[in-house]
């Protein structure tokens, strides 16, 4: 059983780092009314593509499943053939040794010499022992090669799944831009009763968060920290958040969280 199947407890968590101050960037220069109209129009356009994005995600998942099954079946068939060939070769070696030993024994009997018989017997035992050892080594090597093929296929499958998952996450963020609220909530939860919290987000996410505030859909978070401030950081990609507070800094950028997951999977694959 592979290590990937054994361990399903890996979580995509943000990384808590020591407090650090990033350069302060100015908020977008828009009035709240104009911002709400623009953002509502943008969200309406995004929702039009929702069915298409979901269809693409389902297609990607189906293609991934088919590729995974094909890779595993191919690896198992190659390993089975290698092991079968090794066992067949071992059988041939054993049969040849027995045949040669029988010839030697018959020859010694015909000669009728005790010395020849003992010599033939010793030679037969030696060759039989060597044949058994050689057969054992061949079968062990075939088994090691079988495991290597399956492990190699497993790593390829994991890398493929990670690449597909990235596409699905990006598609989900486009289809549901308001999911940035849950990213913010999770990032803040890693801090112990913080005060004077500042969020740094991508410009597009900044617009979404402002719209949520205007609609009152951000009140549950702001009620817990009245000194919450949101600022634009052009260095962040959509879906990522950096939280700064007196309790420390949480790096919840999508790239950071993804790197943590890849490191955990690599650790599971290599056992290091």
Q: Kindly give the count of domains.
A: 2
The helix-and-strand class reads alpha+beta
Let me know the number of strands: 5
Write down the oligomeric state: single chain
Characterization of the model:
- This protein is α+β, with helices and mostly antiparallel strands.
- It has two domains: 1-19 and 177-272, ATP synthase, E subunit, C-terminal (hypothetical protein PF0899 fold, 2-Layer Sandwich); 50-175.
- Helix content is 70%, strand content 8%.
- It contains eight helices and five strands.
- Strands 1-5-4-2-3 form a five-stranded mixed sheet.
- Strand 4 (241-245) and strand 5 (248-252) form a beta hairpin.
- Helix 2 (32-48) packs across helix 6 (203-215).
- Mean pLDDT is 70; it is low at 1-12 and 17-31.
Nutshell version of this structure?
With 272 residues, this protein is of the alpha+beta class. The protein has helices at 3-6, 32-48, 50-111, 114-175, 180-189, 203-215, 219-224, 254-270, and strands at residues 15-17, 198-201, 229-232, 241-245, 248-252.
């Amino acid at each position: 059983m592979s290590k990937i199947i054994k361990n399903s407890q890996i979580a995509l968590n943000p990384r808590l780092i020591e407090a650090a101050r990033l350069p302060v960037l100015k908020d977008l220069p828009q009035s709240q009314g104009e911002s709400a109209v623009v953002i509502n129009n943008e969200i309406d356009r995004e929702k039009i593509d929702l069915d298409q994005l979901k269809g693409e995600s389902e297609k990607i998942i189906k293609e991934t499943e088919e590729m995974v099954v094909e890779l595993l079946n191919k690896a198992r068939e190659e390993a089975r053939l290698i092991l079968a060939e090794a066992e067949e070769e071992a059988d041939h070696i054993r049969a040849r040794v027995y045949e040669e030993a029988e010839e030697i024994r018959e020859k010694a009997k015909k000669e009728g010499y005790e010395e020849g018989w003992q010599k033939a017997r010793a030679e037969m035992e030696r060759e039989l022992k060597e044949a058994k050892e050689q057969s054992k080594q061949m079968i062990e090597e075939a088994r090691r090669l079988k495991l290597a093929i399956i492990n190699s296929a497993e790593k390829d499958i994991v890398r493929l799944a990670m690449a597909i998952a990235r596409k699905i996450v990006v598609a989900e963020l486009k289809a549901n831009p308001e999911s940035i609220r849950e990213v913010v909530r999770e990032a803040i939860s890693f801090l112990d009763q913080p005060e004077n919290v500042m969020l740094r987000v991508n410009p597009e996410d900044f617009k979404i968060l402002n719209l949520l505030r205007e609609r009152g859909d951000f009140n549950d978070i702001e009620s817990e920290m009245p000194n919450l401030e949101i600022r634009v950081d052009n260095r962040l990609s959509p879906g990522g958040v950096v939280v700064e507070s007196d309790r420390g800094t949480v790096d919840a950028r999508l790239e950071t969280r993804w790197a943590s997951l890849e490191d955990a999977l690599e650790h599971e694959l290599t056992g290091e």
